[in-house]
Write a structure and sequence with these properties.
This is FAD-dependent monooxygenase. InterPro entries: FAD-bd, FAD-dep_Monooxygenase_BioMet, FAD/NAD-bd_sf. Pfam families: FAD_binding_3 (PF01494). Keywords: Monooxygenase, Oxidoreductase. GO terms for molecular function: monooxygenase activity. The chain is of the alpha/beta class and 368 residues long. The chain has a domain of 212 residues: FAD/NAD(P)-binding domain. The chain contains 13 helices and 19 strands. The strands form four sheets. A seven-stranded mixed sheet has the order 6-5-14-15-16-13-17. Strands 8-2-1-12-19-18 form a six-stranded mixed sheet. A hairpin with a 2-residue loop joins strand 18 and strand 19. Helix 1 runs parallel beside helix 5 and helix 1 runs parallel beside helix 10.
Length: 368
Amino acid sequence: MKATIVGGGIGGLAAAVAFHRRGWQVEVLERAPEFSEIGAGLSIQPNGLRALDEIGLGDAVRAGGLADPPAGIRRADGNWLVRNDVGDLRRRFGPWVVVHRAALVDLLVAALPADALRPGAEVHTVRADGSVVHSGGTSTADVVVGADGVRSVTRRSLWPDHPGPRYVGYTTWRFIAPPHPVDGSVEIWGRGERFGHVPMPDGRVYCYLMANAEAGSRTGLAALRDRFAHWHAPVPALLDSVSADAVLQHDTHELPELPTFVRGRVALLGDAAHAMTPNLGQGACQALEDAVTLATTVDSRGVGAGLAEYDRIRRPRTRMIVRRSLQAGAPAHWAAPLAAVRDVALPRLPAALFGRSITPAYVWEPAR
């Protein structure tokens, strides 16, 4: 049996590893000239770690550096809006891990045979019969996995009438700062903008910023430094510690709900199926869940029944995560006077509210 995976990012490579471990021949078609990840940090939450356990890589990822759960949310002046019980979250759900995205990609690549990897293969068309037309010819497989991201060629090929990704109204910057003391994984909310910092095991700090903006607009590092200059420490220092070429900016999109993730012998996963806002940090984790679920259901039930079962399991869960993620980030982007109401109301909410709100995301068990 053979699986062809379109896209060599985290979700696609995880699917390839999952199928390979079950004895399938795998082929990973990646448009880029090499398998790498241009990105910043990645927080792998407990459900993502359980998915990695299913493909034998959980312990290797944990060895890269365990991390604390999110500490909470502050205002721009440093006062707490939401303060989480980090110890309780760790006891209830298990550890978090923070890694560089490229490190996780390297780990996944190393778990695959070299002849399964086909960089520099640009996919042109994917057909429901399991054939993939690409720059190197045509591949055929028992199952094709569309893991080619938010602007998926696989999705456009087989769902041509479905609306494309939609801009949610804010853009995102990411960078990794040199080692700097920070008080845990914290998000800071202003008026239509926010800043997050996440300590990495080697002392560096993964940082992200989001701000309301017109789609396609671009803001450089100098303007970001001015914009956040009066926020509480360590925000100005973190921005001052990096160079402009270290900052990545991408507009934030989500994908309207698909009626199915499966067509013929083809299944979508990750952003190609359910691109979501990053507010819950679940994008990569949901792609990992998709990958192990798809390989399990198809291998254990056969192609047709397995693809149907994958669709039945994954669409309701990812739909719920997409909606919760959009809702979770909305208050951060409120302007006055709603933001003032938010700043008064949030500290009055029960301390355990955050833990309860994210429980559905973290509580996940693999399909058998």
